[in-house]
Every structure is written in structure tokens, then in C-alpha cells.
Amino acid sequence: MDSADVPQDVVARLREVCRGLPECHEEQAWVGTRWRVRGRTFAHVLRVESGRPPAHARAVGSDGPVTVVTFRAEGPELAALRAMGHPYYYGGWGRDVLVMVLDEGADDTDWTEVAELVTESYCLLAPRALAERVARPG
Hints:
Elements: H1 8-19, E1 24-28, E2 33-37, E3 40-48, H2 54-60, E4 66-72, H3 75-84, E5 88-90, E6 97-102, H4 111-125, H5 128-131
Antiparallel strand pairs: 1-2, 2-3, 3-4, 4-6, 5-6
């Protein structure tokens, strides 16, 4: 399984969100594509198929096929998203990792919400000086 399994329109939309974040870089992950700031992954998109990767399949309760993005959250937002359920799930690793199932048709996904979540995830993991340079939604 590799990044080719992730719909390219999904990768393109996430790339566009991450493009404006200071010192952000995109790379191929062990599966899928991830975005990092100073060695810390703040967003990772991948495809769950045939129960693989198993940690992600367990997190979303599906053997797939399904495309997911992982990100970080904290405080009330973390609690609210964990309690909300589909399309949000606790990753099962790390205290603040969430997994969001992306709708199969990229046009059905709330990309404004995805952009806000990924941007917030970046700001949680980036050094303060970099995070302060990011325009964040209210």
C-alpha cells in the first residue's frame, strides 16, 4: 500500500492547505502521505484497505476501503470530536491523535473543516514562533 492508493484529489486538497504553513514539508510516509513541521507529523492521509493498516482500521472500525486523515487536537475540541463519533475517531495511540474519515467523493467532504483541523494540528506541534505566523480561524 502506498500514496497512490489515496485519491489524488484528496492529497491535492491537503497539499493546498499545508502549502502556506511555515516550514511545512510533505513526504511519503510508511503508508500514504504526511505533512511535518520540524520532524513532527501534524497531518497524515492514507487509505485503509483489507484491514490494513490495522491500527487505523481498528480506530475507525472498518476494514475499508476508506480514506482517512489523522491530526492532533487538544482541550475542548479534542473532547468534542472524540464524543461526536463518525466521521471522527480517537486514533488509539497518543492522547491527542484523532482520525477523520473522508467522504469517498472529495466534493462531499467539508474541506473548510478539514483545513481548520489540520491548521490547528500544525499550530499545536509547531514551535511557538512558527505557529504565531499562521492565520487561524476564530
